[in-house]
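In this section we walk through a basic example: taking a raw amino acid sequence and producing a predicted 3D structure, encoded as discrete structure tokens. The instruction is simple. Fold the sequence below.
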Amino acid sequence: MKNKINTITLEELRKLLQSDEDFVLMNPLNKENFEEGYIPKSIHISVHSKYFEEKVRNIIPNKNRKIIVYCKHAKCETSDKAYKKLLEMGYSNVYKYKGGLKEWKESGYPLVSIK
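The resulting token sequence is shown next.
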């Protein structure tokens, strides 16, 4: 049986970013993709890095803290991989923003770019 993925909508994410709620917004893409553009307040931990688990444990020691992962677009599987890995590591409050960068940008919200 396939486990149900906890998801968060564009509107829920937008409200969360404007709130004082403690959460982590994680972009698990590779460094180049992250630098092209990311949702404000995101942290970058590439799920493709061999140090992914170590970095997550260092940055997010509280396994009950809300973590939201997102990708480039709805069909991108990088956030699925990060979501599953976080659950395997024992994190219990993990969500996926399915629309990703594409929906965020198309809805007129800003992206931060390092390039």
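Looking at the output, two observations stand out. Helices lie at 10-18, 31-36, 52-59, 78-88, 100-106. The radius of gyration is 13 Å. In the next section we compare this with other chains.
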